[in-house]
Structures are given as structure tokens and as C-alpha cells.
Specification:
Elements: E1 2-9, H1 14-29, E2 36-41, H2 47-57, E3 62-67, E4 71-73, E5 77-79, E6 83-90, E7 93-100, H3 107-119, E8 128-131, H4 140-151, E9 157-160, E10 173-175, E11 178-180, E12 184-191, E13 193-200, E14 204-205, E15 210-216, E16 219-223, E17 226-227, H5 228-236, H6 238-244, E18 250-253, E19 259-262, E20 264-268, E21 273-276, E22 285-290, H7 293-310, E23 318-324, H8 325-331, H9 336-343, E24 352-357, E25 360-363, E26 370-373, E27 377-384
Parallel strand pairs: 2-3, 8-9, 23-24
Antiparallel strand pairs: 1-6, 2-6, 3-10, 4-5, 4-24, 7-12, 8-12, 9-25, 10-11, 13-27, 14-22, 15-16, 15-22, 16-17, 16-21, 18-19, 18-22, 20-21, 23-27, 25-26
Helix pairs in contact: 1-2, 3-4, 5-6, 7-9
């Protein structure tokens, strides 16, 4: 048995909101005791109060989560300024949480600490890792690298970076009854768990492939024989780039068919560098991309279809969704259509939960390493044998 339930409230009062969510979850659990959960809240809630109430309602629950740039569920669909909770109960799947601290000082070590804590006393590899790390003080790419080094690169890792409603001031991560910053919470699953995932962005390459020849972390100085800014302007024109540079992400090629996205954050006319929201490897093959709102929306549906096609069982027990804050910013009032397109392919009773993140984590394909993404919609399906 692998039972998943969801609660979701948009009541602005923290105590009222979590009381409503707990009531919804308790009703759906129908007497079953949950072992673990994930919580997503808007930045303005009293998160400490919310965590305390969850621990009172479900003592000893293995809980992680984060603040967001928007919340998603099968109850209220897309919302802003809300909180949503997904709970897991099972007699065939084991779940344990861990956390690493001080990610800004040593992101790889913080990730390793989180995995070590969650894996304590376990002798077999887990089936899945969920994680919602700090996004503003550390490198998501390095955090992910630390998780992969600790877990092994074949374990599926899915999640998203904590957000704060596009203020870029401070995000919070949740672990048990603690509200943290600069942290890496993880939730590991063992046992009779079936999973599949899908990813899609909606962005299409529009320039020839070129090689990143000079880069420092997330700051790209040269692509091919041109400064990074000159490379962009060569294909888009000076006005076309400066007016819409946030749209024209780089596709970082993994092979001839697959790529992950890197979103530009700013540029420096003096040095000719372009700064991105996440690191790009030196010698990476990249292409400038473009997208329209229709393509971005269609990607959420494509992500879900890919996950359904890969699902190894008869029927999943739950869907977990992560979309990018940049997608929400571009889509504006159309954002709610992302989930509406997804739900047309799912049964009405299937529990769904998710959030808008400052970066997404998922493998590019089945049986491949997890990658750090921008501007991407991730679907994870879960169930048991």
C-alpha cells in the first residue's frame, strides 16, 4: 500500500490555513498514519507555526519543504500566497528525511550531510530522492553534485530550489519542525516504489551549436571566438537581445537530441559577459533559444505525457510537479493553464502537488544523471507495485 493525500489552503491566516490543510489530509487518510510529507508555502506565512501544527497532528513525521514562487495542487490548482501539503503513507515504502546546513560555505558537503542523515542505518540504495534546497546563497549545480556523489548517479533525484516570490531576498527550507535558510533538505524513498518522470521547456534552439570557451561558474565570458554578449547580439541584434534577453536562454547540449536550459540573469557591456542563474561547464556546446507562450504552456502537457509513457506500473498513486518561476513570470495570467493542461490527462482523484521554483532538478531521461534546469516543467509520477 502506498497512499498519498494532499491538502491546500489559500486562507491568508497561517493558523487557519494549516488547520484547513490538516483537516483535508486527515479526512483523505481515513485513519491511515502518514510517515512523510512535503510542504510548500508562500513566503509571508508563519512557517514555524505551520510546522509545529503539522508535528502535533502527525507526530514524528519525516517532513521537508520550502517557500515558493507559487503553489500547485489537485485541490486548488495554481495559487499564489497559499500553502499545500502532500503526505505519504505506506506499508511497503520506507521514507526518511535528512538535512545539510551552511550550503553557502560548502554546498557539496551540505548535500552529503543531508544524504548521510537520511541514509543512516540503511544498507540498500534508495529508489528516489526529493530535495528542495537553498537557491540564493549557494550553487544549485554544486548541491546537486554533492547529492549525486553521496547517492550514486543512477538514483533518480527530483526537486526544485526554494523561492521567495521573486524578491530574491531570503528563502526558507523546512526540515521536521525547523525553519532554515542556507540548507539542503532531502527525503529518500526505499522499497516497492515505482517512479517515472518527464521534463519539457518549450524553448527551441535558433542558433548553430557553439562552444563555451571562457566561463567562471555562472558567468560566461566567451562563446566560440566571440564575447558572450557579442555572440548573443550577432544572432539577435543589439536591440533584440537587450530588450528580451530573459527569454533567450541557452540550451546546453547533452547529446544530439537532449539539452538542459540556462536562463540569463544579467549582462555586462564592458566585459561582454553574460551572467546566468546557474553554472555552465567550460567546453559545453550551447545554442540560443526562443519560445512563445503557447510553446511554454504546451511543455507542461508534454512533460506529463512523457512521464505517463514511462510509468512502469498500471496506475500511479500521485503526481508531483515542479515548474520554474521564470515560466510563471513570462506566462503571467496564463500560468494557471499549466496545471489545467496537465490535469486533462490525469484522473480527477489522483493527488497532485507542486510549486514554482528558482531552478528545477530532474534527470534528462530515464536511467540518466539528474541535471539542474532552468525554465523547465518537471513531472514525477509515484506509485507502488
Amino acid at each position: 500500500m502506498f497512499k498519498v493525500v494532499v491538502g491546500h489552503s489559500n486562507d491568508p491566516d497561517s493558523l487557519n490555513a494549516i488547520a484547513e490543510v490538516i483537516q483535508q489530509c486527515t479526512r483523505s487518510l481515513a485513519g491511515v498514519v502518514p510517515q512523510a510529507g512535503v510542504l510548500f508555502t508562500a513566503i509571508d506565512f508563519d512557517c514555524q507555526l505551520i510546522l509545529q501544527e503539522i508535528q502535533i497532528a502527525f507526530p514524528g513525521i519525516q517532513l521537508i519543504g520550502s517557500t515558493t514562487n507559487g503553489e500547485i495542487s489537485s485541490i486548488l490548482e495554481f495559487q499564489q500566497d497559499s500553502l499545500t501539503l502532500m503526505l505519504f503513507a505506506s506499508d511497503s515504502v520506507e521514507m526518511r528525511a535528512g538535512v545539510g546546513l551552511n550550503a553557502s560555505k560548502d554546498p557539496i558537503r551540505a548535500a552529503e550531510q543531508a544524504i548521510e542523515q537520511a541514509k543512516a542505518n540503511s544498507t540498500i540504495p534508495p529508489k528516489l530522492c526529493l530535495t528542495f534546497p537553498e537557491s540564493l546563497t549557494s550553487s544549485g549545480v554544486l548541491i546537486l553534485e554533492g547529492i549525486k556523489q553521496s547517492l550514486g548517479e543512477e538514483i533518480p533525484i527530483v526537486g526544485g530550489m526554494a523561492a521567495d516570490d521573486y524578491t530574491f531576498e531570503q528563502t526558507y527550507q523546512f526540515f521536521q519542525d525547523r525553519v532554515l535558510s542556507d540548507a539542503v533538505p532531502v527525503l529518500l524513498f526505499w522499497g516497492e516504489l515505482l517512479v517515472s518522470h518527464g521534463i519539457a521547456s518549450g524553448w527551441t534552439p535558433i542558433s548553430p551549436p557553439s562552444c563555451v570557451t571562457k566561463v567562471q561558474g555562472n558567468v560566461v565570458y566567451e562563446i566560440g571566438e566571440r564575447r558572450a554578449l557579442d555572440f548573443y547580439q550577432y544572432y539577435l541584434g543589439a536591440e533584440g537581445f537587450t530588450a528580451n534577453y530573459a527569454i533567450h536562454a541557452l540550451a546546453v547540449k547533452e547529446d544530439s537530441d537532449r539539452f538542459y536550459m540556462r536562463a540569463p540573469n544579467s549582462y555586462d557591456p564592458k566585459s561582454g559577459s553574460v551572467t546566468f542563474f546557474a553554472d555552465i561547464p567550460e567546453q559545453a556546446i550551447v545554442q540560443i533559444t526562443d519560445a512563445c507562450r503557447e510553446d511554454i504552456l504546451a511543455a507542461s502537457e508534454a512533460s506529463l505525457k512523457e512521464a505517463l509513457a514511462r510509468y512502469p506500473g498500471n496506475k500511479p498513486s500521485a503526481a508531483f510537479l515542479v515548474s520554474c518561476a521564470a515560466r510563471r513570470r513570462i506566462l503571467g495570467t496564463l500560468t494557471r493553464r499549466e496545471y489545467q493542461l496537465v490535469k486533462t490527462h490525469l484522473s480527477e482523484e489522483l493527488p497532485c502537488c507542486g510549486f514554482y521554483a528558482y531552478g528545477e532538478i530532474a534527470p534528462l531521461a530515464s536511467h540518466t544523471q539528474a541535471k539542474f534546469h532552468n525554465k523547465t516543467f518537471v513531472t514525477l509520477l509515484m506509485g507502488d507495485r
